[in-house]
Amino acid sequence: MVKIALQIKANLDNVTDFHIESFDDFIWYLKLDCTKCHTHSDTYHDINIKQSSSISGSRGEANFLMKCKFCSQEANLNIEPVKPPMNYTTDDSDNHTFKTLVIFECRGIEPVDWQPGDGWTCQGVESSTKFGQIDLSENKEWMDYDEKAKQPVAINELEFKFVKTFSSIFNSRNQFYIINLISMSSNNSSVASSSSSSSSNSNTNNTYESSLDQLRSLLPNSNAKGMSDYDVVRSATDYIQTLMKDTGTDSSNDKK
């Protein structure tokens, strides 16, 4: 199971307090990727938090169930609201800030694309005029006119990204891998050279190699498999520091 946050940023013109009007009624339009065979869905799946289906094998319920048509892997997804709910302001817009909109708890699938659809709201900066049922389906932008303030209003340049939450990546097992590698990396040459002389050293070396493999799988760098041991440990350490600075998340490519 992995938790993936959907984060957004947007340019707000003469409006503020941009957010989802009703979280319970909001439809999430997602394209999904099977984590086993990495097949992308061709169409958007519409998912709502009020939907609920039983997972096979009496493993609880989920907001969305899917069986991959290529590898037959069974997968599911749950929608997890963020607290407090996201409210995007003019300050966020001016600072080009990404904010977490929702978290998806995923098993066997991961979101790869999203359409914002309708069901958004905001208000005028000067007039506090409320604009409801905003539809961002058309090019992910919206325009209107604030009669009270006598000025045009708009939401545009909407971007989003999916990020794996810090808790999903830096769990207790991965924490062990990183701490273990940091403590062992300086002794790797001696461990490797003597690994054939004793079962103790052999076990230590196997643990070291296993930890390296786990760290390589965590790193977002596609060339991680070709990294030296030192670079893997260094990159993992830098990666964790980046996650901590990014309020507990790992950033991926931005999308518009």
Overview of the molecule:
With about 260 residues, the chain is an alpha+beta fold. It has 2 domains: about 1-165, no CATH class; about 170-245, no CATH class. It has 6 helices and 15 strands. It has helices at about 90-95, 165-170, 170-185, 190-195, 200-220, 230-245, and strands at about 1-15, 15-20, 30-35, 45, 55, 60, 65, 75-80, 100-105, 110-115, 120-125, 130-135, 140-145, 150-165, 250. Strands 1, 7, 8, 9, 13, 14 and 15 form a 7-stranded antiparallel β-sheet that branches. A hairpin with a 6-residue loop joins strand 5 (about 55) and strand 6 (about 60). Helix 3 packs across helix 5. The protein is globular and about 65 Å long. The model is unreliable at about 185-200 and about 245-255 (pLDDT under 50).
Key attributes of the depicted protein:
15 strands; 25% helix; alpha+beta; seven-stranded antiparallel sheet; 2 domains; 256 residues; single chain
Secondary structure elements and their pairing?
Elements: E1 2-13, E2 15-20, E3 28-34, E4 45-47, E5 53-54, E6 61-62, E7 64-67, E8 74-80, H1 90-94, E9 99-107, E10 109-115, E11 118-124, E12 130-135, E13 142-146, E14 151-165, H2 166-169, H3 172-184, H4 188-193, H5 199-218, H6 229-245, E15 249-250
Antiparallel strand pairs: 1-9, 1-14, 2-11, 3-4, 3-10, 5-6, 7-8, 8-9, 11-12, 13-14, 14-15
Helix pairs in contact: 3-5, 5-6
Radius of gyration: 23 Å
Q: What is the beta-strand fraction?
A: 35-45%
Q: What is the H-and-E element order?
A: EEEEEEEEHEEEEEEHHHHHE
Largest sheet: 7 strands, antiparallel
Number of contiguous helices: 6
Share of residues in helices: 25-40%
DSSP summary, beta strand count? 15
The span between the termini is 27 Å
Low-confidence stretches: 185-201, 247-253
The dominant shape is: globular
Overall tally of structural domains: 2
- Secondary-structure content class: alpha+beta
Query: Could you tell me the mean pLDDT?
Result: 81
